[in-house]
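Re: beginner question about structure tokens

> Can someone show what the tokenized structure looks like for a real chain? I only ever see the sequence side.

Sure, here's an example I had lying around. Input first:
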Amino acid sequence: MVSKFKHLKTGDTYYMIRDDVKNCTNANDNQIMVLYKRDGYPDLLFVREKEEFYKKFKKISE
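And the corresponding structure tokens:
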């Protein structure tokens, strides 16, 4: 299920697609990442380390 989040610094709206994506680069094997996109930019995807994501974003709806 996609959840709606607000970036605490900018106030922009984002949609979290998944929060269980594994980072498979050599230095960060098995680091858990969040896959998300910005509202209004459907083809632009972002990843961020899970712990950092939950510090910088606030959930505003399911």
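Each token stands for a local structural state, so reading them left to right follows the chain. DSSP finds one helix and five strands in the chain.
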